[in-house]
Write a sequence for this structure.
């Protein structure tokens, strides 16, 4: 009898979890059953460097944001180049390893990832 109650409890729990997951993935419905328009929060028009917010005037804030917008595409391009170089370097290094060494590296990486995950706070929803 106890085993039967446990199975029913687990079945009900799984049903509740499944229903919740499905409900969370469904779009909200607006008028006439059509999906409601999702309203995205407005992005801030710019973020000042650390400690600037309490120091600069509104005019300086606008000028700083304008400068940041001017330089951001250049910075993005350089970061993409850097990422490509790092990937190229890592591929050349990995090509030197034996299959056994690659396996050992993968295991060490997985262990480190699991250890980091253990100490990270749960993601906020």
């Amino acid at each position: 009898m106890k085993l039967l109650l446990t199975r029913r409890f687990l079945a009900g729990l799984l049903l509740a979890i499944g229903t919740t997951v499905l409900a969370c993935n469904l779009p909200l419905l607006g008028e006439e059953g059509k999906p409601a328009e999702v309203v995205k929060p407005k992005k801030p028009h710019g973020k000042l460097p650390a400690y600037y917010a309490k120091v600069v005037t509104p005019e300086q804030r606008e000028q700083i944001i304008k400068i940041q917008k001017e330089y951001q595409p250049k910075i993005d391009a350089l970061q993409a180049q850097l990422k490509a170089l790092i990937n190229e370097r890592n591929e050349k290094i990995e090509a030197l390893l034996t299959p056994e060494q690659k396996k050992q590296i993968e295991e060490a990486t997985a262990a480190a990832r699991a250890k980091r995950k253990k100490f990270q706070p749960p993601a906020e929803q």
